[in-house]
Write a structure and sequence with these properties.
two-stranded antiparallel ribbon, Serine Threonine Protein Phosphatase 5, Tetratricopeptide repeat, 5-stranded parallel sheet, mainly alpha, 9 strands
C-alpha cells in the first residue's frame, strides 16, 4: 500500500496561504522554462536561472526540430516565481498563468523541496495541463526515491507529484514517473556536467551531442579571440600572450576532455553494456586509454588516475569476454596498480576501495577459469576485507552493503570449489537474507534483482551438492522465474539473457536428478535457444560461445538418457564443433577443455546406442586421454572425470565382446575414484554404477539406497 506523503507548509510563505479566487493575469509572457524550488535552495536557483539565461545554444543546433519543438538561440526567459512576482497583484493566478505558458518545468529537488506544498502544487498544476510535458529534475541535495528505502525517507528529494505519472485527464496515478534528473550536488566538473544534461533535456537532444557541439563552438570562439589578439600586438608580446593562452587552452581542453572521459566511462558505457556490443565497448575503453597514453601516470590527478584504471578495466573485460585471458589479466593488473595507488593516496575513500575491489574480483574470476583454487580463495578474502571496510566507513551507503553481500557470495563460491559445501551454503544463505530484504524494499533496482538471482543460483548448487534436491529445485525455479521477469522488463538486456542460459541448465539438471527427463529436456532446449540468441548478437564473444556449447552438450546427454539418439547426435556435433574452435584459440581455459572431454564421452555413448562400436571406442579413448590431461585445480572432480571415462570405455569394450578389457577398464574406474571425500549425488551415482558392473552388488546397493533416500535417479 503506497505511503501518503506528509506535506509541510512551504517555508517561503510567511503565513498560511489563503484560497483566493482565480483571476486572469493582466499580461501573459511565454516562458521557455518555469523554475520551481524551495526557499532554502534560493542561492542555487538564482545561479541556475542565470546560467540558463546566459547559455548560448550552438549555432549548428538552432532551428532543428526535436520532440520539444524548434531549438531556439537562447533559453530565455526562465520564470523564477519569487523573482518574477515581487509586484504581482495575485500570486496564484500569475503562477498558474506562468506554468500554463512555460515550455518546460524544472524542479530544483532537495529534501525541503520534497516537503514543500508549493513546489508539489506547481508540479501537479503543470502535469495537469500537459501530462506528457517536459519535466526535468535538478538534484540539489538528498537522494531520488529514497522514500522507498526504510530508514532513509528523510533523504527523499523528489516531491510526490514528480514521482508519479498523471493521466490524460490530469489525475495523478500510481504509476512511477522517471523524470530526467541532472545532478547539481557537486561543484566543479560534476555540476557542469549536470547543467549540460539539464540543457540537453530542455532542447530534446542527447548529452553527448550537446557536449560535442558546445566544445566545437567554444573552440571556434577561442580561435577567433586568439587571432584577433595576435593581430593587435607586436611579435614579442604576441609570443608571450600565445604561450599563456596555449597553457590556459590546454588546461581547459584537459578539463573538457576529462569531463567527456567521465561521460564515456559512465553514462555511455551503461547504455552500451545492455546491448552486448563488444566492439562499441572496446572503442570506448581504447579512446580513453589513447587520451591518457601520452601522460605520465605519476603526474595524473586522483580523478584522472581512477578514470584511467576504469578504462583499463573496461578493455580488460572486453578481452575476457572474447576469450583472451592473458590480455585480460595483464590489463586488469595494470588497472589494479592504478586503483592501488589511488587507495594509497586516500585509504579512507570508499569509492576508491570499491574500484580496487572490482579489479581484485576480476583477477579472481580469471583464476577460477584456470582452475587456480588457492588464488580464487585468496582474492575472495581480499575482496571481502575491502567490502567490510567500505561499510565501516559509511554504514548507510546501500552500494557498499551490496558489495559486502556480493563478497560473501564470492567467498562462498571459493569454498564451494573446495567442496566445503556446508560452509559455502552458509555464506549463500546469509547473503540471500540481505539481498532479499534490499530487493523487496526496492523492487525497481535492477542491481538488487540481479544479485538476488545470482545468490539463488549458488544456493541451489550448494543444496544440490548436499543432496537436498527438493530445495535445489525450488531455488532454481525461483531463480529462472526471476530472470525471465527481468528479461521481459529490460528490453532484452543481454546480461539477463546470459544469466538465463546456466539458469535453465541448472533447473534441467536438477529435474533430471529426480528422474523428470521430459521437463528437464524442455529446460535445456530453452538454454540452447537463449545461447543462440546471444551468439546472434555478437559472435566474437567467446564466453557466449562456451555457454552455447555447454548447453548443447547438456541437452545431448539428456536426449541420450531418453533414448533419442538422432537429435542427441545433432546437438553433440554442434556443441563439439564450437568447443574444438575455442580450445584451439586458448587451450589454457580448463572449462573449454573439460567440455571437449565431455564431447567425446557423449559421442561415445551415442555411437554405442547406435551399435557403432568402433566409433564409440575411438571417442572413448580420446575422451580418456583428455580426462587424464586436464588439471583443473579441483583434483577430486578431475579424478571422477577420469573414472567416468574409464567406465564408458568399459561399457564399449563389453558391448564389443571384450569382457576382460571391459573389467580392466571398470577396475581402473574404481581405483581412480578418491576415497573418504565429500561426494555429490552424481558422484555417488557414478560409484554405484561401476560397482554394479563389477558385480559388487551389496556395495552398489548401499550407495543406491543412499540415493533413493534423497530421491536421486541414476542416469547411466
Amino acid at each position: 500500500m503506497p505511503r501518503v506523503a506528509h506535506l509541510e507548509p512551504d517555508q517561503r510563505a510567511a503565513v498560511t496561504p489563503r484560497i483566493r479566487p482565480r483571476r486572469k493575469p493582466k499580461t501573459q509572457t511565454t516562458y521557455f522554462a518555469f523554475l520551481s524550488y524551495s526557499h532554502q535552495d534560493e542561492e542555487l536557483a538564482k545561479w541556475l536561472q542565470r546560467k540558463l539565461e546566459q547559455f548560448q545554444v550552438p549555432s549548428s543546433l538552432v532551428g532543428r526540430l526535436t520532440p520539444n519543438g524548434a531549438i531556439p538561440r537562447r533559453l530565455t526567459p526562465v520564470f523564477r516565481d519569487e523573482h518574477e512576482l515581487a509586484a504581482a497583484d495575485d500570486l496564484g493566478a500569475e503562477i498558474e498563468a506562468a506554468l500554463d505558458s512555460s515550455q518546460c518545468l524544472i524542479v530544483l529537488c532537495s529534501p525541503t523541496a520534497a516537503r514543500s506544498k508549493w513546489v508539489n502544487a506547481e508540479i501537479a498544476t503543470f502535469k495537469r495541463v500537459r501530462p506528457d510535458g517536459c519535466v526535468l529534475a535538478a538534484v540539489a541535495a538528498g537522494e531520488p526515491f529514497a522514500s522507498d528505502l526504510p530508514g532513509r525517507e528523510g533523504e527523499e528529494c523528489f516531491p510526490p507529484a514528480l514521482r508519479y505519472r498523471f493521466d490524460r485527464r490530469g489525475h495523478q496515478t500510481l504509476k512511477r514517473a522517471e523524470p530526467l534528473a541532472a545532478d547539481l550536488r557537486h561543484d566543479g566538473e560534476g555540476r557542469k556536467t549536470g547543467f549540460l544534461k539539464l540543457v540537453a533535456g530542455m532542447l530534446g537532444i542527447s548529452l553527448d551531442e550537446l557536449v560535442r557541439r558546445e566544445a566545437t563552438q567554444r573552440h571556434r570562439r577561442m580561435l577567433w579571440t586568439t587571432v584577433a589578439s595576435v593581430l593587435g600586438m607586436v611579435v614579442a608580446i604576441a609570443l608571450a600572450v600565445a604561450a599563456v593562452q596555449a597553457r590556459d587552452e590546454a588546461r581547459e581542453q584537459r578539463r573538457e576532455a576529462e569531463g567527456l572521459v567521465a561521460y564515456m566511462l559512465g553514462d555511455l558505457k551503461d547504455k552500451l553494456e545492455p546491448i552486448g556490443r563488444l566492439d562499441a565497448l572496446d572503442g570506448v575503453g581504447s579512446r580513453v586509454l589513447a587520451y591518457y597514453s601520452s601522460q605520465d601516470a605519476a603526474e595524473l590527478s586522483d580523478a584522472a588516475l581512477l578514470q584511467r584504471s576504469r578504462a583499463l578495466s573496461l578493455t580488460a573485460e572486453v578481452s575476457y569476454l572474447r576469450g583472451n585471458l592473458d590480455t585480460a589479466e595483464r590489463l586488469y593488473r595494470q588497472a589494479l596498480e592504478g586503483t592501488g595507488e589511488a587507495v594509497r593516496r586516500d585509504p579512507d575513500d570508499p569509492q576508491r576501495l570499491f574500484d580496487h575491489a572490482q579489479n581484485i574480483f576480476a583477477i579472481g574470476k580469471i583464476a577460477r577459469d584456470r582452475g587456480d583454487r588457492a588464488a580464487v580463495e585468496g582474492t575472495a578474502r581480499q575482496y571481502k576485507a575491502l567490502a567490510t571496510k567500505m561499510v565501516a566507513l559509511d554504514t548507510n551507503n546501500m552500494t557498499w552493503r551490496m558489495e559486502e553481500m556480493n563478497a560473501a557470495v564470492n567467498l562462498g563460491v571459493a569454498l564451494f570449489g573446495q567442496r566445503r559445501f556446508s560452509e559455502a551454503g552458509k555464506q549463500f544463505r546469509e547473503a540471500l537474507t540481505t539481498i532479499e530484504a534490499l530487493a523487496t524494499a526496492n523492487p525497481r533496482n535492477g542491481d538488487y534483482q540481479q544479485s538476488l538471482a545470482q545468490t539463488l543460483a549458488w544456493l541451489a548448487d550448494a543444496r544440490m551438492a548436499e543432496g537436498q534436491l527438493h530445495e535445489a529445485i525450488a531455488h532454481r525455479e525461483r531463480h529462472v522465474a526471476l530472470l525471465e521477469r527481468l528479461l521481459a522488463g529490460s528490453g532484452e538486456d543481454v546480461a539477463f539473457r546470459q544469466m538465463l542460459v546456466p539458469a535453465y541448465r541448472g533447473l534441467g539438471n536438477a529435474l533430471a536428478a529426480r528422474g523428470q527427463l521430459r521437463p528437464a529436456i524442455e529446460q535445456l532446449r530453452k538454454a540452447v535457444a537463449q545461447a543462440q540468441a546471444l551468439m546472434g548478437t555478437d559472435r566474437s564473444n567467446l564466453q557466449w560461445q562456451g555457454l552455447a556449447a555447454r548447453a548443447r552438450l547438456n541437452l545431448a546427454e539428456m536426449l541420450v538418457a531418453a533414448n533419442q539418439s538422432v537429435p542427441a547426435e545433432s546437438e553433440a556435433v554442434q556443441g563439439c564443433a564450437i568447443l574444438r574452435d575455442l580450445v584451439a584459440r586458448d587451450p589454457t581455459v580448463h572449462e573449454w577443455r573439460a567440455g571437449l572431454r565431455d564431447c567425446h564421452m557423449i559421442q561415445a555413448r551415442i555411437a554405442l546406442r547406435s551399435g557403432k562400436t568402433g566409433e564409440a571406442l575411438e571417442h572413448a579413448r580420446t575422451g580418456l586421454e583428455n580426462a587424464r590431461a586436464i588439471k583443473s585445480g579441483d583434483a577430486i572432480a578431475d579424478r571422477y572425470a577420469v573414472a567416468r571415462a574409464y567406465r564408458i570405455m568399459g561399457d564399449v569394450q563389453a558391448q564389443a565382446g571384450n569382457q576382460g578389457a571391459a573389467r580392466s577398464a571398470w577396475m581402473s574406474s574404481l581405483s581412480s575414484m578418491p576415497q573418504n571425500v565429500p561426494e555429490r549425488p552424481s558422484e555417488i551415482s557414478e560409484h554405484a554404477l561401476v560397482l554394479d558392473r563389477l558385480g559388487r552388488r551389496a556395495e552398489a546397493q548401499r550407495l543406491s539406497a543412499k540415493l533413493d533416500q534423497i530421491g536421486y535417479k541414476r542416469i547411466a
